[in-house]
């Protein structure tokens, strides 16, 4: 999907096997930036997403060898799944925040600490991070293509967003959570602060969220405002459960899912973990 002359979006569909009986359909976006001197990626999707990325690059008359850099918004499987083969084939440099580095370079450690169902079907393996990025960094990819790093924790400790200043395009990873989407957050309160931070950025023409369709114009602010309201509702609902320490994780998740009006399959290990972490902080 062409976003601008330079930036193209790819939608990767996949499934998370929550149990032998239940699979959850998901999708995630990754992005290709076509420069005159090279090709640059933001996020890599799940395992095997690299083939769609390669195909898109070749259809534009470019080569996989043209990939110079891969910028990661964070370390979760649907963003780093294909990093290992992309890096091995292209020789590109991988960029990520310091707080995400360990889980990218040791994916089995990530799985032991955050056991996503079907993890090994989503991730090709570990990959070295060549460059750590931090809040406010400006990286000139080439003439007229500058990327600004914006630290947006909440979904994970080292989540970042990337702003292409020349084009007014903001890639927000999983930061902008919309009503009805799964509340998978390490810290919902930090997540709300990160959305507010993005909302204050002037002249954003296009919002590219990993879990949502591309948004332009007035819809950019509207989606951020909806996200802020939803995250506040999640936080306030968790905070209101005073007996949280007397609830096991599954019962807490069932109660929260009911209050938030989410479907029954939202009671899954990822959401259970997220709500438990935030309940401990709010309790």
Q: Output the radius of gyration.
A: 18 Å
Q: Helix coverage percent of residues?
A: 25-40%
Q: How many helix segments?
A: 10
What is the domain total for the residues? Answer: 1
What is the residue-mean pLDDT, rounded to a whole number?
Answer: 92
Strand-residue proportion: 15-25%
Shape estimate = globular
Count of extended strands: 12
Write down the CATH topology: Metallo-beta-lactamase, Chain A
Give the spatial strand order of the biggest sheet. Answer: 1-2-3-4-5-6
Structural class label: alpha/beta
Under the CATH scheme, which class? Answer: Alpha Beta
Unreliable stretches covering 5 or more consecutive residues: none
SSE order: EEEHEHHEHHHEEEEEHEEHHH
Largest sheet: 6 strands, mixed
Distance between the termini: 44 Å
Indicate the CATH architecture. 4-Layer Sandwich
CATH evolutionary superfamily: Ribonuclease Z/Hydroxyacylglutathione hydrolase-like
Overview of this structure, please?
The chain has 283 residues and is α/β, with parallel strands linked by helices. The protein has one domain: Metallo-beta-lactamase, Chain A (4-Layer Sandwich), CATH 3.60.15.10. Helices cover 36% and strands 24% of the residues. The strands form two sheets. A six-stranded mixed β-sheet has the order 1-2-3-4-5-6. Helix 4 crosses helix 5 and helix 9 (249-260) packs across helix 10. The longest helix is centred in the last third of the chain and has 23 residues, at 218-240.
